[in-house]
Amino acid sequence: MTTRQRLCILGATGSIGTSTLDVVARHPDRFEVVALTGHARVPELLAQLRQWQPRFAAMSDPAAAAELRRQVREAGLPTEVLEGPQALVELAAHEDVDSVMAAIVGAAGLPACMAAALAGKRLLLANKEALVVGGAQFMAAVRQGGAQLLPIDSEHSAIFQCLPEDRGTWAQRIDHIVLTASGGPFRQRDPASLADVTPDQACAHPNWVMGRKISVDSATMMNKALEVIEARWLFDLQPEQVQVVIHPQSIVHSMVVCRDQSVLAQMGTPDMRVPIAYGLSFPARIASGAQALNFLSLPPLTFEAPERSRFPGLFLAWDALRGPHGSTAVLNAANEEAVAAFLDGRLGFNAIHQANAATLEALPPKLDLQAPVEALLALDQEARAVARAVIATLQR
Ligand code: NAD
Ligand code: MG
Hints:
EC number: 1.1.1.267
Function: Catalyzes the NADPH-dependent rearrangement and reduction of 1-deoxy-D-xylulose-5-phosphate (DXP) to 2-C-methyl-D-erythritol 4-phosphate (MEP).
Bound molecules: nicotinamide-adenine-dinucleotide, magnesium ion
Catalytic activity: 2-C-methyl-D-erythritol 4-phosphate + NADP(+) = 1-deoxy-D-xylulose 5-phosphate + NADPH + H(+)
Largest sheet: 7 strands, parallel
Binding site for Mn(2+): 153, 155, 227
Pathway: Isoprenoid biosynthesis; isopentenyl diphosphate biosynthesis via DXP pathway; isopentenyl diphosphate from 1-deoxy-D-xylulose 5-phosphate: step 1/6
């Protein structure tokens, strides 16, 4: 009998979290759900606890956790409910957990990711902001803990799927990589007309249904900027070895260009359950629930360059990677604040980029290369304060 992989899903109530549970439900013989976490949405997490009956649940918002605990008791469920951000850290490193799906949105997920890395877990990383903030320290924790880091972002999963299992060969093999981007909902709109777009328009992505923060990031292409930084760390590349091309059909999920100019691409219907299933089953392959790709009914696959005038935020990725250590954490913090302000109706869509660029310029970090992750989290807080001040001056 094979033993089942014991899972902790951080951010279980979100888009990636629910897609993960959808894949897991197809393979009861392979996976056991040990812990599910959410932030503040009690009804969603309670429904998951009813279905999965895990040993543990946690909510980072303590008041929500108290309410969930009350309802769990009332429903007679077996789950122990923990509370606060520290509970997520404890569950990510728990001895009865083999694999951690990191599907929290934002830098808030970094402490739990670090804990999973240091505890040597199999770490399925959707939470790209954690790696953008953690950078070298995150990767050092993975090595120190002997963790297995598996990318869930579809582009990074594509690159990973195009590479051999032996990481030692990657540097010799890769000339550069090309991340594909859909271009989001505003790819063909006049950039001058974007000042007035609403949050709902920005979140209406043509090819993917996702959480609101990443949907706004896709519309500005800051999502791709974060992914360039993420790829730099996952695959140990120089900034100029990471390139981006717009591919509106989202069928080719990314490409590796080898030294000999052979190009390897990974394709499939746009469905996050494919990279999630691969992360869960690697190196094996399991059913994901995704639709088959029908080559005979595909639209033409097209590729175009991202224009700086339309997507200026994308280019901040390389600026930040070449800037002083910690610059990518500053960029991420600014963007989280700017997106929250946009979703709240406090900031115009075009002003997201202005806020990010101005914050990056106002706060060149002075961190040494060995700075601990606590210093990066302090820098994250400092950058948020600077960004909020910048945003106040840009307010509608
Ligand atoms: P989402 O908003 O749908 O879900 C976010 C989850 O994080 C929820 O469970 C929420 O409760 C939890 N959360 C939010 N704030 C928290 C906090 N402060 N502390 C603890 N938990 C918190 O987001 P999503 O679309 O599922 O994205 C999750 C991550 O995966 C993001 O980093 C995103 O960039 C990445 N990602 C998502 C997709 C996608 O298709 N949705 C694709 C690639 C990468
Ligand atoms: Mg992606």
